[in-house]
Amino acid sequence: RELANVIERAVIVAQDGRLDLDRALEGTAQDILAVSAAPEEQSRPARVLTLEEMKRLEFDNLRRALDATDWKVAGEKGAARLLGMQPSTLASRMKALGLTRPR
Predict the structure, then answer these.
(1) DSSP for 35-91?
(2) pLDDT in tens, 1-25
């Protein structure tokens, strides 16, 4: 699941069709993936994220998807499709997180 999130983030922040895994692995996701990727350390639990950290990750991910689609929510090239969710779900999450298009 974490790997899927990292790949999704890499696709969202890709420039000129090139994935930037260093950028996609920035911050907390990198810490989680580093623990998850080390088989000898599988017995150690990954760092637990706080609710605020989870909200920040979700906010940032939705924002990147919206930026990548020029804030188009629905349709073939919309952020909802990129994120693998229904447009109504994306709209609901945007409202819950207070995510609005910058002016």
Answers:
(1) HHH-GGGTTSPPPPPPHHHHHHHHHHHHHHHHHHTTT--SSTTSHHHHHTS-HHHHH
(2) 777 777 777 777 776 767 777 776 6
